[in-house]
Structures are given as C-alpha cells and as structure tokens.
Design goal:
- The chain is of the alpha+beta class.
- Helix content is 41%, strand content 20%.
- It is rod-shaped, with a radius of gyration of 23 Å.
- Keywords: Hydrolase, Membrane, Protease, Transmembrane, Transmembrane helix.
Amino acid sequence: MDAVVWVVLGVVLAVAEIFTTTLFLIMFAAGAFAAAAAAALGAPTALQALIFTLVSALSVAVVRPVIRRHARSALESGEQAFGVEALEGATALVLEPVDAERGLVKIDGELWSARSYDVTRSYAAGERVQVIKVRGATALVWQDDISTPGELPEGKR
C-alpha cells in the first residue's frame, strides 16, 4: 500500500511540474518514485521517507543545475533563435496606439498585443517600434531608432 501512495504522490508532482515548468517539482517526483521502489521492496516507512528526502535533495542540488544549464535560451547560447525568441529585436508596425496598458502591433505579418517597454512612452498607429521582449502573448516594444546609444532601455546596452 505504501508504494501506491508514493506513486500517486510522484504522479501528482510530475503533473504539477507541467504547469510550473520550473524543474523543481519534478525532482520531488523522482524522490517519490524512489521511495515507491523502496516501499515495493519492503522498506519500512522511515526508510522510505529518508530515501524520498535524499533523492529529492540530491536531484535539486545536482541534476537541476545541469538541466538548467543545458536549457539556456538560443540567444544566450549563440544558436539560431526560434519561436518567440526570434521575435526579440524584430521591427513591428503599430496598428493601434501602444502604451503601458494596451496596444496592437504587426510583427512579420502577425498581429500581437503590445505594451510599451518604457511605461512613460506611447506610440501612435503607423510608427515603427522594435520588440525588446515577449512576455506570454504580449510584445514589449521600444522606439525603432534603438541604435542611438543614449536611448537604449536599461539592460539592452
């Protein structure tokens, strides 16, 4: 019976990881599956808990940093960007005024909701802007003449 409880806990943690994508809960799921194996072999409950704790802690301390190091973005690793990463740095056309609250831009023929990267700035329809960052389905944009050294947003110099 103990093995079933550990397997259920492991599955719940693994499913929860799908929604968080932090590579944290999956380490505890691995610990739960290791404890389930110990329970199936007849280990006492105290040993099962110890195995769960040790495997989880070792996974977080050793495996997670390795996975995160290999899961760097394409821009960080120098590889060809794809998906929303490829949009960062692209030029967009403002279709509806963009400010800190709302806006609509066209990026490579696709419509995107947009917000101003600098909350004090707004852009009128017809202006060209540059995509600084994509958060979810919203492009954070900045003025298109971004090559002017004194005008770069913080962190993009």
